Amino acid sequence: MTQPTPIRRDHLRSALHLAAAGVPVLPLRAGKRPVGNCPACADSACGGRPNMKAAGPCLCPLPCHGWAAATTDPAVLQSPAWASVWRQAHAVAYHPGGAGLTVVDLDNADAIAWARETLPPTRTLPTTRGEHWIYLGAMQSANAVRPGVDLKSLMAYARWLGPGAGTMTDLPDAVRALAVKEPSPVRPALLAVTVPAPTGGGECRHRMPAYLERGIAMAEQRITEARSGVHATVYRTFLAVLSAHGRCGCLTDTHIARLFTAAQAKGESARHCTDAWANAQARLGM
User: Fold this and answer.
1) Helix/strand/coil (H, E, C) string of the chain?
2) Is 278 within 8 Å of 55 (Cβ atoms)?
3) CA pair distance 114, 148, nearest whole angstrom
4) What 3-state DSSP class applies to 188?
5) Per-residue confidence of the chain (286 residues) as pLDDT tens digits?
6) Which residues, in sequence order, are CB contacts of 68 under 8 Å at separation 6+?
7) What is the pTM of this model?
């Protein structure tokens, strides 16, 4: 009988150590790629994928969605469902944005020289072809912001290469500016919501300031405090808000804007917010 490939205990130990420190982690297969989709999620059949081109929740227990699968839960990392992926693992990755970090990935000597001349010193560590500079603070991720330079933070993963050397400093404006492609941000259009009018002819109870405000504030907090699985958390939160408040007509564009703003602060795109909201409406038959 063919024996299964053993779990790489060194990778699992590293992952558990990082998770205990509050760093969301996931396994990488050869080629520094996330472990491939499980059969249930092949070709995004479950409706969830890390690049957000499809909306919807994914309840699959396997780490098959790139950065969105990163977790700090040791029970998940050591679960039987994850055993097979640890057998495939060649390395450990982490979600920098989920840990409140930004990695400036410098891919060659020219990029390193540019960073030394332009950016404040921070914690660094060598990579195969260059260096990772790690700053304290999360931001939008972006690739190829200049030759040989990528930014890995929210909605991205980076390979864990060790603790690095040097003191980590706050994320500077010079790094944030690299991800800005237009001088003035344009507020994304919000999804227009049409819901049935309140029934019974009386005043909607949700228009009571305390009741409605508490519900929206709790939803914002749930999204803001998500440390992993942000994509699914946003969808489930939208679903809960619509289930409680969506049929009586009390939700306004202002309320929806607050939810979208909280989601985008966690790295969700405006397109995903709109798709997730529409998906939640469809789930509830609205």
Assistant:
1) CCCCCCCCHHHHHHHHHHHHCCCCEEEEECCCEECCCCHHHHHHCCCCCCCCCCCCCCCCCCCCCHHHHCECCHHHHCCHHHHHHHHHCCEEEECCHHHCEEEEEECCHHHHHHHHHHCCCCEEEECCCCEEEEEECCCECEEEEECCEEEEEEECCEECCCCCECCCCECCHHHHHHHCCCCCCCCCCCCCCCCCCCCCCCCCHHHCHHHHHHHHHHHHHHHHCCCCCHHHHHHHHHHHHHHHHCCCCCCCHHHHHHHHHHHHHCCCCHHHHHHHHHHHHHHCCC
2) yes
3) 10
4) coil
5) 444 555 567 888 999 999 999 999 988 877 677 765 566 665 555 655 444 333 345 566 666 667 777 889 899 888 887 887 788 788 999 999 989 999 999 999 999 999 999 999 999 999 999 999 999 999 888 999 999 999 999 888 999 999 999 999 999 999 999 987 654 444 444 444 443 333 333 445 555 556 677 778 888 888 888 877 788 888 888 888 887 777 776 777 788 888 888 888 888 888 778 878 887 777 777 6
6) 48, 50, 155, 228, 229, 230, 231, 232
7) 0.59
Task: Look up residue 164 and give its amino acid.
Answer: G
For the record, the structure tokens of 247 come out as 């049929």
